[in-house]
Structure formats: C-alpha cells, structure tokens
Amino acid sequence: MSSQTGTLPAEGVRAMFDRIAPVYDAMNRVMTVGLDGRWRRETAAAVVSPGDRVLDACCGTGDLALASLRAGGIVTGLDFSERMLERARRKSGEIEWVQGDALALPFEDDSFDAATVGFGVRNLEDLDRGLAELARVLRPDGRLGVLEITRPKGLLAPFYSVWFGAIVPVLGKLLPGGSAYTYLPASVKRFPGPEDLARFLREAGFSDVRYRLFAGGIVALHTGVAA
Ligand SMILES: C[S@@+](CC[C@H](N)C(=O)[O-])C[C@H]1O[C@@H](n2cnc3c(N)ncnc32)[C@H](O)[C@@H]1O
After folding, report:
1. Does residue 190 belong to any structural domain of this protein?
2. Domain that holds residue 155
C-alpha cells in the first residue's frame, strides 16, 4: 500500500514527529479526553502474558510499551523519531528503547512472543511491509495487537469529521509546536476502515484476526496470531 500520509514520505513523517514530540502526550490526553490510557491497557491485556518478550513498534513517547511492561512483558520499544524516544526513555529504564525503522526491523526472525503498534500503522509508508516485518519477528503463534484510529459508521461519523477535521487542528495550534497536528485529519481520512485493516492482517499471514471498537467506533483494536 502506498503512503498513508499522502504527501509525506517516511523522512517527512519522522521529522514531523520530532517536531510534535514536546506536545504529543498532552495532545493525546486532550484528543481522547483521557481515554487513551484505558485503550492501551486493553491492548496490552489482549496480547501480552507475563514473561513475554514484547515489541512495541512505532512506540513514540512509550505509553503503550509501558502498558505492556505493567502487564508483565519484557519490552522493547522501537521508533525512528529520536525526539519521541527521548521522552520515552525518561519514562522507563526497564524498557529497551531502540531507534529504528518499522519497515526494516533490526531483530532476528521469531524474536518476540507479542507485538503491539499504537496509532502507528496509519503512519507507515508501506503498511504491507510493516505487517510483514511484524509477522517475521513474531514467533509462530505470537500475538499482534494494533490500536488505531478508524472511521466510524452511523451516528458518530459527522462528529468524527468535525472532531478530527476542525477541532483537533485548532487544539494543536493552541499548543506550542502543535501546528503539525493538521497532519492528523489527512492521515485518518486515508486510513482503511476496520474491516479493511482486518483483511490486510489476514493477507499478511495473521490468523484468528478480530477487532473491537472503542469510543463508539472511533478507535479499533485489531488482534491476530502469527503463523
Ligand atoms: C502517532 S505516533 C504513536 C506513538 C505511540 N505508539 C502511541 O501510542 O502514542 C506514531 C509514531 O510512529 C512512528 N513511526 C512512523 N513510521 C515509522 C517507521 N517507519 N519506523 C519507526 N517508527 C515510525 C513515529 O515516529 C511516531 O512516533
């Protein structure tokens, strides 16, 4: 699949997250009215068992990796934005933080029992390749959890357009450095709906693919099992 962010190739995405890093956590809390913590805990609970080796790809400032640590995992967080990783490192010395590309993971085959991606697959320049890399580094029967904004159907659809299309970019402008939040509506609009993402996971070789919707269908948690 081609670029999820349209005009932004990978280098542009990395530079954008370097710029956003100082306001990223605050924006998350505001945009999700504080619900993101619960979604991250649910994601970790769905795929991580105590003692698991866990990869959190596109870990950003590290909150999903921290949820996996709290679920008992031995966690590696990977991101290509050094500024996002700087913030993650301040949150935990127990997690191994690695700067690297999710499209060319610097890990051997079968290195992990579980993997998570939080609000990250939408930003991948090549979603198929990203999913193939996750499948490669997971051991057979390893579990994947993908938490992502998705397009709701029905009553919430107009609210969602106004929230991400108008309100979030304005909120971003109020925070120093947050003007880059204008990227979000575009990246969300281009992203596949939950059924499509489930299909991509199956096409990447994951079995037992399921998803649950949070917040009336604005956020989806997809899970699957590696071959
Ligand atoms: C919206 S943030 C999500 C951060 C975090 N997972 C969370 O749940 O808050 C997306 C992250 O994906 C990272 N990213 C995007 N493409 C990447 C790639 N190809 N390799 C590594 N990291 C990538 C960005 O640097 C950014 O930190």
Report:
1. yes
2. 10-225
